Amino acid sequence: MGRPKRYRERIEFEMHSVQAKSVQSLISQVLQKDFGCSRLEAEVLSQRSLGWLRALGVPEVPGQVRLAVPATPSRRYARERRMMATITAVDVGEDTEIWRVYGLAALQRRRLLRWLYEIYRSGGWASLAELAAWANLTPTALGARLAPIRRHGIWLPHVGGPEPREDRLALEPWLVARYLEEGQVESLRAQCGLTLASWENLLYRFLQVVSAADIGTAPEVLANRYGFSILEVRQLLAVSRKYRHQPLFKELAASYGDFICSSSSAEIEDELTKLYGFSPVSARLYHEWLAELAARLSTTSLGPGEMIFLAISADEGARARLVEARHIPVRLRYFTEDDALEGPYGDCPSKVSGLKFNRLVRYATEARVQGALLTLPDLAVLMGIHVDAIRRQLAAHPEVVVPTRGRLKDIGRGVTHKAEIVEMYLQMHTETEIVERTGHSYESVEAYLREFARVVTLADQGMNPVMIRRVTGRSMALVKAYLELYRRYDKPDYHFRLAQLRNVFTRGEILGQKKGRHFPYLIGGAER
């Protein structure tokens, strides 16, 4: 019967909140707002523009990371013979769309397939044990994700796998062959986690390879130009020879085959005018804007294992709209040697709970140090696991305060951490200790303490929870949490601390009256 409507709406909201911070989303918004493209046109062209960014000098676009991988398909030497390969660890625009449309399992499968072939195209071989750790999956779960692909007979390049053969098709040549043979691949796209824009880009590159090969371009050049391996180029050419006389192939060739794309400045503008309907002036302006974006993304080089992720600035308020808020490119250590020892090369690679928690704490902390804050959906997309799994990890380690945006900006389920901060103060921790342990600012901690002191004072005056909620303007859940905290700590050992809080509230009220101010008593939504 499928998921409940509320669940689907929640996933929709969470994925849109992350997608709004992607480079592809930024490009798509500019294309729709400034260049008059439709939503679908902007989605397809923004996908193509990511390739142009690399050609314009961006070493690694946000989400890409350089990691050490095996340089041999032999299991025996996989840990000794290593090389560096660039993989797209997180493609925020594509990944959020896959999760939203096809679900989390399809996203995880798409990432695994993307990593397998990107490593192979770089000249390396993927270790399935390492891929499982990157994806925060157990080896058994990874096998289950790849099982549907294996059942189709698709060749997967990895350590210990079968030898590459031109008659055993890789994923993308196999998908093109199925499309040319059957005409419909909707179910296969859903299974492989291919968005409409990614599928359009695959067909486009296929026809470009065929067109360039027809004029005598060598397979090695084609592989480098269009982002395939030499084996995949040869398989694509074999597919084109087999289906060249099919009507569907001729339709595709009529759409793309007479134009060979490139990435030089003049040819980018030429492609925009011939294939995307831009005027020469619009093509030049868009090319200039793309070059400026490339310059901003190329300011710093990344070390091994590091990636760039766009996160909302810590200076933005809780009510800031994500589309309009300032976003900061933060540098995150995506996968470290400690992660490898915790996961694939640890004592128990089938348990990944410790690996998950260490990574989410690292991501949130490193972003906070750089002046940005990650949300729970951000962390979920980064790690490829559900938001509820993130919450379970946080709940399992209450002694660690992870500096997420919801926690520091009091967004969402903020009652628990407010009560925790007040409880730490009642237990004789200083404000400095609370700030260091929770990651909250002094101003936030003082605001929570004043808030609690006000609830305590009103309770001492005999007000019930309903009236306290109306007077303070706080939620009933928060008022009840504070009252429960008051009941637990209204003991002789804590009377001194409670008296301090009452005095703080009284002084604040007197000071406010002297300056002509008062606390807003919200009754019926109005101030009096």
Architecture overview:
Helices cover 60% and strands 7% of the residues. It is mainly α. Among the domains are: 307-408, no CATH class; 415-527, no CATH class. The strands form three sheets. Strands 4-3-5 form a three-stranded antiparallel sheet, covered by helices on one side. It has a two-stranded antiparallel sheet with strand order 1-2. Helix 21 crosses helix 23. The longest helix has 20 residues, at 495-514. The protein is elongated.
List keywords for this structure.
528 residues; mainly alpha; three-stranded antiparallel beta sheet; two-stranded antiparallel ribbon; 26 helices; 7% strand
Question: Over all CA atoms, what is the radius of gyration?
Answer: 28 Å
What is the mean predicted local confidence, pLDDT?
84
Give the strand tally: 7
Q: What is the share of helical residues?
A: 55-70%
Which regions have little confidence, pLDDT < 50, spanning 5+ residues?
Answer: 510-528
- The strand order across the widest sheet is 4-3-5
Spatial separation of the terminal alpha carbons: 52 Å
Count the helices. How many? 26
Overall morphology: elongated
The portion of residues forming beta strands comes to: 5-15%
